[in-house]
Design goal:
The structure holds 2 protein chains of 2 kinds.
Chain A (H helix, E strand, L loop, with lengths): L2 E7 L4 H16 L4 H21 L6 E7 L4 E8 L5 H15 L4 H14 L9 H8 L3 E8 L2 E8 L3
Chain B lengths: L2 E2 L21 E8 L2 E11 L2 E6 L9 E3 L1 E5 L4 E4 L2 E4 L9 E5 L6 H7 L7 H4 L1 H6 L6 H27 L5 H13 L1 H19 L6 H18 L3 H8 L8 H9 L7 H11 L2 H24 L7 E6 L6 H5 L3 H6 E7 L2 H18 L4 E6 L2 H4 L5 H5 L2 E6 L8 H13 L1 E12 L6 H8 L8 H6 L7 E7 L5 E8 L3
Parallel strand pairs in B: 1-12, 10-11, 10-13, 11-12, 13-14
Antiparallel strand pairs in B: 2-3, 2-6, 3-4, 4-9, 5-8, 6-7, 8-9, 14-16, 15-16
Helix pairs in contact in B: 4-6, 4-7, 7-18
The chains are: A alpha+beta, B alpha/beta.
């Protein structure tokens, strides 16, 4: 059985608190264990925050969550401005590198080390996404389709 | 000779960097010894030391060990633990050199970039990393101990034998090494195979992240030995920042004994002779045959070229199989896409070899772009045109379902009516799966037939089916677009 949540959010930080509540209620209603509810609520909110941070502030964010017996898939879509494309190239490289490290905790530590060694003007943390991979037990991936950014987090196992 | 177009980088604007205000290059602080605190002025002296001047009466002695130093920069309050104050001939007048003994900050970064970076940061995470072994299954721990023991015995033996005949002329060394590989080497390979089979049995009931934790533990124990094998070193270290790069593919294609020692050569050959590597080799003639068959069916010619797109082309060695005659070379227009300029260079070399051998040019476009951002190119069709045949062999194994679906949809939109696609993905039953995960640190997205076909469920105008290579490991999603 698939449980599905579809939401359209304003790209506004104030939306995150309400989203947190909505996500918890939805996930709890699927019959998920309490710890999993916390985990995937974090995943949903991190992805939404990422969209607010890098997305076009005049365009809405579409969020979709599918909970199946063996997987949870969170997808967030929103428009991005062309200025963000440079960041997406970095994100692409970072995610491919993390995917190549099977243990996300090692990637998390390594990324923190790398960030501390970068000049502050270049610092683009991606830490929220790495947190999803490590604490959220999910694989993060993205694709840019025209100017719509589609970021997804797929649970590695339930 | 070639009709090669320049690499299309699909350039987009990059974000302008944020300009940070220039930080001050000095600070005021307080240094403590016993119960005595003394005010100090500080400047960066070197990456890991400071120039220190006492603002008032210096402590006695002015140099030597101190308990702590605290100071403020523009962005941080820094508290150092024990440190040493030294006389230094290079110090400015009235200054000493201060060197921390713990929390060893990078002072150049701190003062010049307002960034706190500590040399011994990694040591702070040690307890967490050491705790990792508490999660390891006892049977697996015993297994890894046995593997490490056996491998070290074989390594020592082969290294000793290598040293014994090292002074022989090269042809003699080569023949002796071939003999070792064929005889004692086979015993070592049998031993490895037995251990891999044991591992499969022990981890059979593991779930999810247990696999990544246990794989990490195994690699940690065998790290030195794994690095002697060029293939294993490459899959584990990922020198290009991603898994499955074109050199790894080339190693699979070569399927030879490579390395600096007999032991390294044997360990290198073990994975490149596995079922998964055989599947990589099998897909090369397979995709060439599919594309060649399409060219024949459409009656491709110099005036009616078959337009081919290879996505994540890697070294594109299948060009040797497809472009096997002057006529075939004149029937096609190739577009080769890869994120990695080194891979495109290797593909260009493969094409150059074909052109040289057949003494005819091949029409080709090179596109350097990641599949995750290539779809950002508005009007892909206008930019690159439409294609009769699109294939991608080693890409979808790394894409999550949502991204795989989006990429496939865009590629499908680039197909001409009646055009075909061949998309590779390893099957979930790959017998080498856990060996790749644990020993090679090479995780893939494995798919079932159902998973793979589900990526096409929104294609109203297409027929989709699944084919396999001889090993059954390499699954191919075949798609044919409707003719109208």
């Amino acid at each position: 059985m698939t449980h599905e949540l579809d939401l359209t959010l304003r790209p506004d930080w104030q939306e995150v608190e309400q989203l947190n509540q909505q996500a918890m209620t939805f996930l709890t209603d699927t019959g998920m264990a309490h710890a999993e509810v916390d985990t995937y609520t974090m995943v949903i909110c991190e992805l939404a925050e990422n969209s607010i941070k890098y997305g076009d502030s005049s365009q809405p964010i579409c969020l979709n969550v599918k909970v199946r017996d063996k997987s949870v898939c969170v997808q967030v879509k929103n428009k991005v401005r062309s200025e963000a494309h440079g960041h997406l190239r970095e994100l692409d490289q970072t995610l491919q590198w993390i995917r190549g490290v099977q243990d996300p905790y090692q990637a998390y530590l390594e990324r923190i080390r790398e960030l501390s060694r970068e000049p502050i003007a270049n610092a683009r943390s991606c830490l929220g996404l790495i947190r999803i991979m490590y604490e959220g037990h999910s694989d993060v991936d993205f694709v840019l389709d025209d100017d719509t950014l589609n970021v997804s987090a797929l649970s590695r196992s339930r | 000779m070639s009709e090669h177009n320049d690499v299309d980088h699909n350039a987009t604007d990059t974000a302008a960097p944020v300009t940070a205000a220039a930080p001050a290059n000095h600070a005021e602080g307080a240094i403590k010894r016993g119960g005595q605190t003394t005010a100090v002025d500080l400047q960066c002296a070197s990456r890991y030391s400071l120039w220190l001047a006492y603002r008032d009466e210096p402590p006695h002695p002015a140099t030597g060990a101190f308990d702590s130093l605290t100071f403020e920069t523009d962005a941080h309050t820094i508290a150092l633990g024990p440190c040493q104050v030294l006389e230094d001939a290079d110090a400015p007048d009235g200054h000493y050199r201060l060197v921390p003994m713990a929390s060893i900050h990078d002072f150049e970064k701190l003062f010049q970039q307002s960034r706190a970076d500590v040399l011994d940061l990694a040591a702070r995470n040690l307890p967490l990393i050491l705790q990792y072994r508490n999660n390891i299954d006892p049977a697996f721990r015993t297994f890894v101990g046995d593997v490490a023991y056996d491998i070290s015995v074989y390594k020592e033996l082969f290294d000793r034998l290598d040293a014994e005949y090292a002074g022989e002329p090269e042809p003699v060394r080569e023949v002796i090494q071939q003999g070792l590989i064929r005889n004692t080497g086979q015993e070592f390979i049998d031993c490895l195979n037995a251990h891999v089979a044991d591992m499969e049995r022990i981890i059979d009931n593991f779930e999810g992240e247990q696999h990544s934790q246990h794989g990490y533990y195994l690699r940690k124990q065998l790290w030195g030995e794994l690095l002697t094998a060029p293939f294993m070193a490459r899959t584990n270290l990922k020198p290009r920042g991603y898994i499955g790069d074109s050199e790894m593919m080339q190693m699979c294609y070569r399927n030879t004994y490579e390395g600096d020692s007999t032991f390294g050569k044997l360990l290198h050959h073990h994975p490149v002779s596995s079922a998964a590597a055989q599947a990589v080799r099998n897909r090369r003639p397979l995709v060439a045959a599919m594309a060649g068959d399409y060219a024949d069916r459409m009656g491709a010619s110099a005036d009616n070229r078959m337009r081919l797109l290879s996505v994540a082309c890697g070294p594109a060695l299948e060009l040797h199989d497809l472009l096997n005659s002057r006529e075939r070379c004149q029937q096609v227009e190739y577009s080769l896409l890869d994120q990695d300029d080194l891979a495109l260079g290797e593909a260009a070399a493969a094409l150059g070899a074909v052109e040289k051998r057949l003494q005819t040019p091949v029409k080709v476009n090179y596109i350097q772009e990641s599949v995750r951002t290539l779809l950002a190119t508005r009007a892909l069709r206008e930019r690159w045109g439409e294609f009769h045949f699109i294939y991608s062999m080693g890409l979808f194994d790394y894409l999550t379902p949502p991204v795989a679906k989006a990429v496939l949809s865009k590629l499908h939109a680039l197909l001409l009516p009646g055009g075909e696609m061949a998309i590779g993905n390893f099957h979930v039953t790959n017998p080498t799966r856990r060996y790749m995960d644990y020993w090679l640190d090479w995780p893939l997205y494995y798919r079932t037939e159902e998973d793979f076909l589900a990526l096409t469920e929104d294609f109203g105008d297409a027929t989709a089916w699944i084919e396999y290579d001889d090993t059954g490991v390499q699954m191919l999603l075949r798609i044919r677009k409707a003719t109208t």
